[in-house]
Amino acid sequence: MKTALACVVIAALVPSVHAQPGGDVGIYFDEEGTVRGRNVVPGVQFDVYVVADQIVGGLKAYELSVSGVEEAGLFQLGFSLYGPAPLNIGDAQAQNFIVGTGACMPETTATLVTLTLLAVQDVPDDSRLCVGPANPTSFDPPGPGYSDCNNQIGTFTLVGDGCAVLDPTQPPDYEVELSLDTVNAQIGGTVSMPVGVSQVPVAKSDPSQLAGIDLELHWDPVFAALEDVRVTGTTHDWLVEFNAGSGTADISAASTSPVSIPVDVEEPVLELDFRGGNVEGFTDVTITSSRLFDIGQGAIPHVTDGGRIFVGCDKGDPVEDDEINSADAIRTLLIALGSYDPTPLQFCASDMDSDNTVDVGDAVLVLQTAVGLLTPDRQRGQEPDLFLRGGSEPGEVFLQYSAAAGADMLFAYDPERVAFESATVVEGNGLVASNDEKSGVLRLGFASARAGHGTVRLQFDVAEFGETMAVKYAAAYDEFADRHLVPLDDHEFVFGVTGVDDVPGLGRGIDFVGGRPNPFNPATELRFELAAPGAVQVSIFDAAGRRVRTIDVDPLPAGEHGVRWDGTDDQGRVAASGVYQVLVESSVGADRGRVIMLK
Hints:
mainly beta; Immunoglobulin-like; 4 domains; 41 strands
């Protein structure tokens, strides 16, 4: 027997027998048998429970079906059956089962079937999963049934229409809903989460009287901690006790003066005071167990809906003055360079792209926010780049940037021979900050709201011309605050070199003239001009910054020269089409440029 749209559980193949009702059965989204409606998200698995209640005579075997699984676009990941040793001799592939519990089960309530399902597509609104007969000929009238401990045949009575609703457009037939709210907490700050109780519109017309609540909650302790539980105006005379642990809490509240549960209004009966953690993110607050009871200690049937705590900050405002301006960008830049030790809230506010790091790109984003340039219609421009040039004054260095909104550089030098003095923007607009707290190390950061061209002047106190400084790290940032590594790592800068033709501040001692031809296929001549005699190293990098080829050139006289690149890497393999960066270096400086290989 194969059913395309039903998952069938059969306890026994029995002749048609007129049977008397022996209990209730329904399908739910919780094992307590209260939730009969829920929204479903594709890709998220969930469980469905077939729960029998008020079973007469115990339970030895049972048969029933669950229809609508495939109609709703659901995939069955697994199932479990009731009993200490349930016997299944059916066809699992066809979703047909013959099941016995393995013993006489005297319980009056049992979860007969648990299905683990996964939505593989958007579920149509009001899709239904329904309990029904496994075999229409087993019982008269047809329906789900069971065999009791005396081998007597009985039938179950369906709860309601025997169905549960997926993605309901109308509220399901619940009496009372206990719900937590979604709240936003600042990192390290407190926030109150209301605990609401209400009746949905289709509930009974006579509101219940609420005299007490027992709750067990669970959440991720990384993001929040429960500090207090308070009564509200509705429950001002209630007594509240709670025990909060790491990510868990037991809460009890009760009174001898019950309150009416309003209809279609979520009336807060308690306030949960949480303190946000030191990490940006969110956590669900799950109601793992709950009990509502009336003045006679009778349980009030209800459904539950957990809450969520978002933990964050005011992005772009690490100064915490409720404004986003250049002061916030300066603080972000200082945090990026390690010159300012932020609180967790300030770190979060500076981390504009929420990647758990603060870098120069975040300072760029703060500036763009401050001047209104952080808009979705921004257009990506050319790739940013950085250049170092010597100046005419002793210890003077010019950092020139092109198409860049920011820069981050790390220099290392002999502190006995070189000392950092200042950094100033001399061309273009932007903020510059530095950190030289570690002896012999300088971290330099620059940020602007717009990508463009400009110059930052660095002044050092050097013992004499010819002193050197290593560039350990260099990165440029584009207008989207994306980082682009610049292959200047471990490049040695020589103080005192004024530049080509002795023009102050404009030369490197070597200039890359260009590739001839450019674009090229399959080879090109890489031309460069030396201000002074010396050996030259030509390095070629791909678009990802990986070194492709290194060409060492013997000492050359001053003037323009060229070296041929045949389009292969250091292993002799032909390089792919694309843009390549060329770095030419000599003992008196370095320069870079680009060539394009087309095939």
